[in-house]
Amino acid sequence: MSQTLTVTDERWPIAGRFTISRGSKTEAHVVVATVRDENGLAGRGECVPYTRYGETVDGVMAEITAMTTDVGAVLTRADLQERMKPGAARNALDCALFALEARQKGLTAAELAGLPPLQPVTTAFTLSLDTPENMEAAARVNAARPLLKIKLGGGAEDEERLAAVRIGAPDAALIIDANEGWTPDIFESRMRACAHHRVALVEQPLPESDDAALADLPHLVPVCADESAHIATNIPRLAKLYDAVNIKLDKTGGITEALKMASAAENAGLAIMVGCMVATSLAMAPALLLAAKAKFVDLDGPLLLARDREPGLVFEGSIIRPPQATVWA
């Protein structure tokens, strides 16, 4: 048996500007790995290199390409778990190999994962960090969506931003994402504001390096690990500090580890959120395998782009339909 591997990078414009506490961007720069077998069957995977974890597009592409020389003619998902660290590069390859394996066995991705057929799910829709006035306006435009995710930054205007969004979208469920922007000394006041405005979840309020403080701080609203959560072996520590965990394939290094992490989170009593980077439908489709286990789904990446790849996932408002095999597997 033999395989061929191709790696490309692509740029997808964002509709406007996407801003979080660490900065802004106007495009999604993604890496796509394609693995093709000797019979012409192929699987693809998409990842987003993230500077927060020291990743670059060139570095990720080099990591992927190096795997073919490291392991020989045929690459397996087991090889990846042994030889690659969790992160974007392993994610692209793992998802590509998962899709290829499903096609070789004549299975859907859900069947290969031992899951029932996928069902439609409701995703959060993200509002970028901005002035309170602009965030209220964005909330009004999206007020009919059942779940909004709000980017906050830790500054003095955070509580004003939250209040403004609640005015703009009085009935939507809200997730707050601070992207490590808070500190322990402001945590309690921010959480009181979140409780007042009926926030459903607060995502990664403290930096990963400071999150041990969460053990002694009151959780007036459930708190979700994101930047602190990478792989299944993190779960015992996280269960002492958090109420939920955000599983992203670009952190776990693919769907193989993500499924293990979801099982570990369930066993530890942590609620599951399945999240994403800003990317196309090719990156979202594998993550939908986790949606049945998730209390919160945040797979709105394609909705934030000026255009998605074709074919892509079908979105009906905030509802995502199960992916067709032409999207991923």
UniProtKB/TrEMBL annotation:
GO terms for molecular function: metal ion binding; racemase and epimerase activity, acting on amino acids and derivatives. Gene3D superfamilies: Enolase-like C-terminal domain (3.20.20.120), Enolase-like, N-terminal domain (3.30.390.10). Binds 1 Mg(2+) ion per subunit. Keywords: Isomerase, Magnesium, Membrane, Metal-binding, Transmembrane, Transmembrane helix. It holds the Pfam family MR_MLE_N. Mg(2+) binds at D177, E203, D226. The chain crosses the membrane at residues 270-292. The keyword Ribonucleoprotein does not apply. It is an enzyme of class 5 (isomerase). The active site is at K151, K248. Residues 132-224 form the Mandelate racemase/muconate lactonizing enzyme C-terminal domain. Its cofactor is Mg(2+). Its EC number is 5.1.1.-. Belongs to the mandelate racemase/muconate lactonizing enzyme family. This is Dipeptide epimerase. It comes from Hartmannibacter diazotrophicus.
